Amino acid sequence: xxxxxxxxxxxxxxxxxxxxxxxxxxxxxxxxxxxxxxxxxxxxxxxxxxxxxxxxxxxxxxxxxxxxxxxxxxxxxxxxxxxxxxxxxxxxxxxxxxxxxxxxxxxxxxxxxxxxxxxxxxxxxxxxxxxxxxxxxxxxxxxxxxxxxxxxxxxxxxxxxxxxxxxxxxxxxxxxxxxxxxxxxxxxxxxxxxxxxxxxxxxxxxxxxxxxxxxxxxxxxxxxxxxxxxxxxxxxxxxxxxxxxxxxxxxxxxxxxxxxxxxxxxxxxxxxxxxxxxxxxxxxxxxxxxxxxxxxxxxxxxxxxxxxxxxxxxxxxxxxxxxxxxxxxxxxxxxxxxxxxxxxxxxxxxxxxxxxxxxxxxxxxxxxxxxxxxxxxxxxxxxxxxxxxxxxxxxxxxxxxxxxxxxxxxxxxxxxxxxxxxxxxxxxxxxxxxxxxxxxxxxxxxxxxxxxxxxxxxxxxxxxxxxxxxxxxxxxxxxxxxxxxxxxxxxxxx
Length: 494
Known about the structure:
Elements: E1 11-16, H1 23-36, E2 41-43, H2 51-63, E3 68-73, H3 79-88, E4 93-98, H4 112-125, E5 137-138, H5 140-161, E6 163-168, H6 183-188, E7 191-195, H7 197-206, H8 213-224, H9 231-251, E8 257-262, H10 267-272, H11 277-285, E9 290-291, H12 296-309, E10 313-320, H13 324-335, E11 344-349, E12 363-366, H14 368-374, E13 384-390, E14 394-403, E15 409-418, E16 428-433, H15 437-446, E17 453-457, H16 462-471, E18 476-479
């Protein structure tokens, strides 16, 4: 997915050298990394031995347009200058060190294994954030792989530094679960702009007759296909899409990237004349997340997954259990004993999942639940506009970053898959399987009071998300623990 709403990472590498070790160890080993790495990597020729070198190297990578750095300890490394790089540079930094083996062990030993310890200690004393891989010591080829892993981490960190979340309307009365203090956003460096639904309605009306509407209607028709949409609804939805895009552009302010958290019911459909779900799905497929029910941390989570995966995402209710008969008739027949019934659940929303992640049965339909509530179950009119159908089989990562009622940021990550099984239900919905989901549901989602919305990335990006959350300073990162590893609140006598 190519999007102007996420950062493009431009990496640079700076080698450091302790002046009592041969500088050639760092310079040559740095060059070996540049050759081994397959992507774009600016090679800073200034090797840092002291603070003046550090300033010159940082200026060099800035001039080259770098927004993320690899700091490479080719030998033991100078503790103060190397850690000041993380302080003085304006973007995320990764620290890695050289393994031995490319020279003799008398004059060619660099002791970077030892130097990483003091580097980490110094970073901690200065309260500096940096990314250190699981095992940060390696050959040029090893470090090239670490750099590739660092790119989505750096992209996410940079994205959050430039993000503004724009919300419309207060939470629906019965969805207090979407409420959370905005304090956590400021701690992450994220800005928020909160608006009234009336502000949005006024802007929407001002876009009536916009000359861009016919072209967007054609796009929608081509995207959905004949018989899969309501032609008479397209103009209204196109008008709304333009309204959001223009609002994002004119309200970014000093920020580079945006995400929306919108009120979608009960007043929205009757006043705008449609449900916003399909438009929301189109925006997130272009890299602009739009969360439902004014879920600000849902929008934040979606944006994090967008940056981490480089692909589109969605936001779903952790909605309902899978009936035993579906498990027996469909899941067991296809997947054998790979999953237990309690490993499965259905993820659902009215219709905000991008159409590219849905099965061929997807179509623009009407919101059955709101039709009952707002149109007395009659012929659907303004409750139309949802994108419905089964979500296509895919590996997934289910995750969320949330600020709790005490103002503390906490998160969870669980990898699994969408099963290739018909849901036999309505909405944008899929049968999900996550190993040990039943225990995770009880001892993480319920125990730690997470809301019902979870973000979904359509790749396994748990490793990246875990490192991102660590980098951001999130102290509580939960995951679906295997059966051999009980949760603190799990009853040992069960």
